[in-house]
Amino acid sequence: MADEHNSENPVGGARGLGVFERRRIEAAVLGPMLNAFRDRFGEDATRETATQVITEIAREQGREMAEFLGSNDLKTFAVNKDPWRKGGALDVEETERSATAYSFNVTRCGYADMYRKMGYGDLGDIFSCTRDFEFSTGFNPKIKLTRTQTIMQGASHCDFRYTLEEE
Fold this sequence. Notes:
This protein is α+β, with helices and mostly antiparallel strands and 167 residues long. It has helices spanning 19-41, 43-69, 74-79, 82-85, 110-118, 124-139; strands at residues 90-97, 101-109, 143-146, 158-164.
């Protein structure tokens, strides 16, 4: 499973730091940087570059998580969501869990609240939401996420629908 140099969950981080706290720390550093880049290079170039970098990181973290857990099936993916929820970061209503489908709605998103309070509500989708697709792809390329709305974009809830593609 995990090697001796990184025995901590790659998503949960060192000493059990949850994803919510990691995102807060990242936003405190990245927010001012991205605002400065936006002023200098423009909105589109800044968002495109930041999204590319963060999704590459998410894909790698997904691969690392599957390696750490020793499995990349959908069941393993579904039962290991605690790092994202740590500290009450999300209120979730699960609607389906099977070998080929995992669905839930996020009814309260502490991430969206946090980014807005920090003044980075316009960057929250890059900091968190876009990672969801790439993390699952890194975890297992056959796991596909469909999501039509997010709280970050102003919806009442986020609708996560993961499916495992059959061969």
